[in-house]
Amino acid sequence: MIITTSPLDMQRKADILKRIFDILKSNPLFSEVAYCDFVKMLDCLSAKTANYSKGAVILLSGNTVNFVGLILSGSVRVIKEDANGYPSIIAELGVSEIFGEAFA
Asked: How far is CA 100 from the centre of its chain?
């Protein structure tokens, strides 16, 4: 969550939250949530945003996961390596989809 004090910063925060809400309301998890409740949820969950470069590793199989990722732009490939180290794409997730716990 972005913590700000100036009116301009507060307006930027509101704009960012509205854009995030508009993206995530297509996800069944958020489709029936009102905007004011959405903002409260993010605050309660200490939500954060993160940017990753193309090809970056976000999680490794077997890692302890203490978050759920929600894709706001781009895509996430879930890749599993076989015993010989050869990768296989097991899922490709897009905007408003969730990743994290199920694949770690």
From this structure: 9
Residue 103 — pLDDT band, cuts 50, 70, 90?
low
> What pTM, to 2 d.p., does this model score?
0.76
Q: CA-CA distance, 98 to 91, in Å (whole number)?
A: 12
Q: Which residue has the tokens 């004090």?
A: 5
Helix, strand, coil percentages (3-state) for the chain, rounded to 5, are 30, 15, 55
The greatest distance separating any two alpha carbons of the chain, rounded to the nearest whole angstrom, comes to 55
Taking only the tens place, the pLDDT of each residue in 51-63 is 999 989 888 877 7
Contact 96, 71 (CB under 8 A): yes
